[in-house]
Amino acid sequence: MEKIIEENKQGTSLVLENKEGNSKKLFIESYGCAMNFSDSEIVASILANEGYNTTQKLEEADLVLVNTCSIRDKAEQTVRKRLEKYNAVKKINPGMKVGVLGCMAERLKSQFLEQEKIVDMVVGPDAYKDIPNLLKEVDEGRDAINVILSKDETYGDISPVRLLSNGITAFVSITRGCDNMCTFCVVPFTRGRERSREPQSILEEINDLASRGFKEVTLLGQNVDSYLWYGGGLKKDFEKATEMQKATAVDFAQLLDMCAIAHPKMRFRFSTSNPQDMHEEVLHIIAKHPNICNYIHLPVQSGSTRILQEMNRQHTREEYMTLVDKIKTIIPGCSISQDIITGFPTETEEDHQDTLSLMEYVEYDFGYMFAYSERPGTLAARKMEDDVPEEVKKRRLQEIVDLQQKLSHKRTSRFLNQTVEVLIEKTSKRSDAHWSGRNSENVVVVFPKENYKVGDFVMVKINDCTTATLIGEATGYSDMN
Ligand code: 5AD
Ligand code: SF4
Fold it and tell me: Which residues bind [4Fe-4S] cluster 1 (predicted)?
């Protein structure tokens, strides 16, 4: 499953260039993971053909869409507050229509329309192409809902508009859905079964980005390592593919290789990796290409084999450690980041200690850490009691966060006095005189602007660091330019 961008903060409202002749106004806001942001770009692209330009002013919108996340209860509560806000604005502007997209739409189905009556339209993650029809139903005063999950929808034929873009980095989705069935996770219910997008359409989207000056692409999926294109359909049906389809199938290692070769002056990242699906071949491809970043987001969730089993993760603590050893041998210096859930049902103090010791073993560069939140409908919610008291979850979470801080600081300080390659993304938040970008290992680097510009690959000598940021001075352009 993939990394969350924002959960507690206000979602990001997204804007794109106006299309001439369009007169209606769309306010579209996204919560949750990178996949949701990427999906909002697809939705905006569909609506640009229906006469909508985006706006950042909620009050002037004809249509308000919120792309939602269900991963934890807190994420859903944030969206609920926004729905209240939209409805308050709707009282002043009764012509305004409100639609809910994404994972909450899929999870709650008609509840928002029928019981709560707080939206006009409900659209699940596989039904965005139906939005123009659903809007007609709204205009005719009918409840508009489509939450059908698809076997083959990948939106490969829609060229997404880039919302809120820096013009340099972009997400490109390569798989949708997830077949893993981790017992805590709502995603298989909200995003359906796993399917892969055709390599040709992925490469075409990247070609287009390259021609428009983009310099970095992150290949996205709930589980990228299990990417498998064999001519269409669900991953689970691969066994039924013809011999020809099997012989010409493309897996993740091959896809990465194709991207890196096709665009040697572009950087590639990917997210998210699932330990049981990450094969050695992918590691060799990363090691082989300087333009594939040395960074792997490798959620572990727990350091205890017993808890991993309860979570239905398909690996043990030891297997995870072996994979980490392989990463460190094949890609020296590779950054590794984690997702960890603390306070899963039945988690003991000993299990918690196992998580802390695993963190020490891996020396994670970053981490995204969460207290367990029971999600309705998941196997854990149906079969297991949420029995770790809130204060224990909180204390364990704090211990994990503190340890990660310590490890992150150790990991950033390894770059002191080294010269790293940085892609400039934007002006630093703290200082107008400094650029901000990232090195291959995904650490933020800030340095004085001099005559460099956004989109340049620059060599930067590091002379200071905090837990999350490297500070340095440019020494010249890199040969990626
Ligand atoms: N409670 C807490 N955290 C969760 N995650 C997924 N489901 C839950 C849940 N029910 C976390 C996992 C996942 C990340 C995206 O969110 O760590 O990797
Ligand atoms: Fe993304 Fe949906 Fe998972 Fe939230 S619940 S992280 S939006 S896939």
Answer: 33, 69, 103
Cα separation, 316 vs 314, whole angstroms: 7
Going from the Cα of 367 to the center of ligand 1, the distance in angstroms, rounded, reads: 12
What is the CATH number for 268?
3.80.30.20
The CATH number of the domain holding residue 453 is 2.40.50.140
What the block records as the tokens of 253 is: 């290692």
Q: What pLDDT band is residue 12 in, cutting at 50, 70 and 90? A: low
Q: Based on the structure, what is the number of domains in the chain?
A: 3
Domain boundary among 131, 146, 161: 146
Kindly state if the Cβ of 370 falls inside 6 Å of ligand 1.
yes
What range defines the domain where residue 466 resides?
Answer: 419-477
Binding residues, as ranges, are 33, 69, 103, 178, 182, 185
183, 184, 186, 397: residue to mutate for ligand 1 pocket, most atoms within 8 A of CB: 184
Q: Give the closest residue (by CA) to ligand 1 atom 16.
A: 71
**Choice from 8, 71, 347, 396 to test ligand 1 binding pocket (greatest atom count within 8 A of CB):** 71
Phi, psi of 386 (to 5 degrees): -75, 80
Which ligand has its closest atom nearest to the C-alpha of 338?
Answer: 1
111 and 250 share one domain: no
Ligand 2 atom nearest to CA at 178? 8
d(CA 314, CA 293): 26
| Residue 139 domain-assigned (yes or no) | yes
Statement to judge: residues 206 and 354 lie in one domain: yes
pLDDT tens digit sequence for 464-478: 999 999 999 999 999
CB distance 76 to ligand 1 below 6 Å: no
**CB 341 less than 6 A from any atom of ligand 1:** yes
Ligand 2, atom 4: closest residue by C-alpha: 69
Q: Pick the closest to residue 343 from 368, 369, 315 (CA basis).
A: 369
256 and 198 both lie in a single domain: yes
DSSP 391-438: HHHHHHHHHHHHHHHHHHHHHHHTTTT-EEEEEEEEE-SS-TTEEEEE
Question: How many Å lie between the centroid of ligand 2 and the Cα of residue 69?
Answer: 5
By the 8 A CB rule, do 467 and 410 touch?
A: no
CATH of the domain at 119: 3.40.50.12160
pLDDT digits (tens, 9 = 90+) for 352-387: 999 999 999 999 999 999 999 999 999 999 999 999
* Angle separating helix axes 349-362 and 390-413, nearest 10 degrees: 10
**Domain end (from 413, 430, 453):** 413
